[in-house]
Amino acid sequence: MSAPELSVVCKSCGSEVSPYVTECPYCGTRLRKRAPKLERHGDELLAKERPKRARRQRGEGMRRLGAADRPYVTYAAILVSALLFLVQVAADLFPTEVGAIVGSAGEWWRYLAAPWVYDDAGYLFVAGVTIAIFTPGVERRLGIVPALVLLVACGSLGMLAADGLESLDPGAVLSAAGGNGVALGVLAAWTAMRHVESRAHPGDDYDTIGVAVFAVVLLGLPLVEPFASVIAGLVGALVGGAAGFAAARAGATEE
Questions:
Q1: How much is the average pLDDT of 75-102?
Q2: Lesser CB count within 10 Å: N end or C end of the chain?
Q3: Cβ-count burial of 76 within 10 angstroms (0-12 exposed, 13-18 middle, 19+ buried)?
Q4: 3-state DSSP call for residue 175?
């Protein structure tokens, strides 16, 4: 047994933080995969040491498919949307010409393209900031390939559900594009994984108020953005939350 450090210095922002948290509360940088478990010995709390073999196996198990040191999926998600928006504005194209859904999709590829098409910069900014903040944490936990599949699934399944449900109402005209489903999905996935982690390690908390603010803003987007579909957003959140919770539970059972 060894006594735990009194503090840990974040390599990103230089702040001193508790050795029992996994992410820096000031800048969000990942400090460790899990907080150390404690054991009481008399009047002292000491960190519980794991056998070296167990630590090595756990590290290998956490090395997800396509893991990388940089958040490439985050970069790609933002750059694809930004480039499509710039092309659309420069060529004076309507959103439907680059993949937005109006009325009904008609073509299968629109389900894949629509989540990355924006009709104005404000919508792109809100969704892009959310994706930029929460996707790196998801990507670190899952790896490149699963994180990419998750983002595409949240956006495309949201558009598919929006198209399917709107078709049940003959008088409704669907307008769906943009990444509110993607943003809500990655937000829900990150929250689900952090919730499981915080329950397993008391004291490893996260900013629930900040998460709630992002969620409220994204859920309110359809009130001001005609292409932000309520159904696409809710389905994206449902897909992301379910995937994040399942991944967190599966990861917890690997130890």
A1: 93
A2: N
A3: middle
A4: strand
Mean pLDDT for 113-121 is: 94
Under 8 Å between Cβ of 31 and 10: yes
* Closest alpha carbon to 73 in 27, 131, 125: 131
Place of tokens 């399917």: 164
Cα distance between residue 183 and residue 81, in whole Å = 12
Query: Exposure of 46 by Cβ count < 10 A (0-12 exposed, 13-18 middle, 19+ buried)?
Result: middle
What average pLDDT does the segment 120-129 reach? 95
- Which pLDDT belongs to residue 8? 72
- Tokens 């008088």 map to which residue? 171
- The structure tokens listed for 233 are 């957003």
Distance CA 54, CA 89 (A): 54
**What domains can you pick out in the chain, each with its CATH number?**
8-49 (no CATH), 72-252 (1.20.1540.10)
State how far the Cα of 245 lies from the Cα of 188, in Å rounded to an integer. Answer: 9
